[in-house]
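Appendix B, record 7
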Amino acid sequence: MLSVQGNSLRLRLIAMAALWCTVALVVAWVVLSALFADQVRRGFDDRLAALLEGVVAASEWEEQEDASQTPSQTPSLRRPLPDPRFQQPLSGWYWQISDDSGPLLRSRSLWDGTLPKVDAQDRKDGRIFQDIVGPNGLPLRMAVQRLTLTGVKGAILFQLAGDSTASKADITRFDQLLAIALVVLGLGLIAAMVLQVQIGLRPLAQIGRSLAAIRAGRAEQLQGAFPSEIQPLADEIDTLLGHQAAVINRARGHAGDLAHALKTPLAVLGNEAAEVEGALGAQVRRQVVEMRRQVDRHMARARTAAAAGVLGARCEVRPVVDELARVLGRLHQDPGVEITIEGSVSEGGANVAFAGEREDLQEMLGNLMDNACQWAGGSVRIQISVRDGGLVIAVDDNGPGLPPERRAEVLARGGRLDESKPGSGLGLTIVADMAELYQGALGLGKSDLGGLSVRLTLPLAP
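Structure tokens (predicted):
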């Protein structure tokens, strides 16, 4: 399909090709039309010249005396011209013989009219051609030749005119047919150019499809053979993808090493502080707990920042939820928490997938579901849905809930509302931070089960 965007490469190529094609065809029409018109006029002029030579060849001159007994020479034709139109009055074809005093002899078709007198001395051969208006208003083409004949006094002007309407009609008809032919040719050329551009840009479209497959997690590198002009681009993209994967793996490894390096000394410090009584021991224990919380939070953000937006990151939601439900069900089996799961298939029939890393989804849902199980009165519900092109996971419980004025406070500072519950108190804050890195969001509300409803919005994998 053709793209209609202003910055479309396909549209630019087709537009430029169509522009140059149009200019070339217009120039061709002008040149061919002028050449044909000149050829028609030359052919018509040659015909007029041949007929005029026939008039000159057939002319005879007889010496006569007028009433004053002054000798004069009168022209006549030994034989009439073969074209009968010279005998038909106002037929559009005329000839005339004149001297300086005026017409001496003319064709019967002129009736009582005359042809205009012109000066034919500018040409070396004494013959000129020009367009005139005939006696009946028709456009005529006239050939004129001035000759000096042996035995005839003065220069004699021979004129022959013919109706040029048919010639002009031929030129007009040729121009129309030529325009139609060039328009059809132009449309064919444009169609061929569109096809050529489509075929020429097909490798780029193939790269786009391959990148979409990588982004959707169906492939790890570009697939297929590309033309020599495109292959370097494909190689560079594959190299970039490999480098990105290596950087992410190193970042995850560094984050894990740092977390392990920090947690071990903190654990030792906490154990030593537990044996110290008094204010100092209590202060050290509180600071160790706070340091653990901060390490957990920032390590989670570091891992997510390294993985968020990675091409090809994809994991289905339902298997992760099922696995967490089994684990949490065993951990909270004494209170008897029942976890129900609803929805896992999109409108198109495909399994709903998260456009991110499986470890990140496990950590976010693990925090939310564990928190719901701790506060629930026996029932936890997980709803998976697709809304406005995004993935929405709602975790509801039938516990005591959370007052509206405390919800923003929990997300803002990650404080613990009840010290009797296990955990660091940073679960919701970590989830909110990770969701934000994935261009998602975390919202709190009241559940229809009676407790808290936590709504996690994440990018949906294609």
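Remarks on this record: The two ends are 21 Å apart (CA to CA). Residues 414-424 have pLDDT under 50 and may be disordered.
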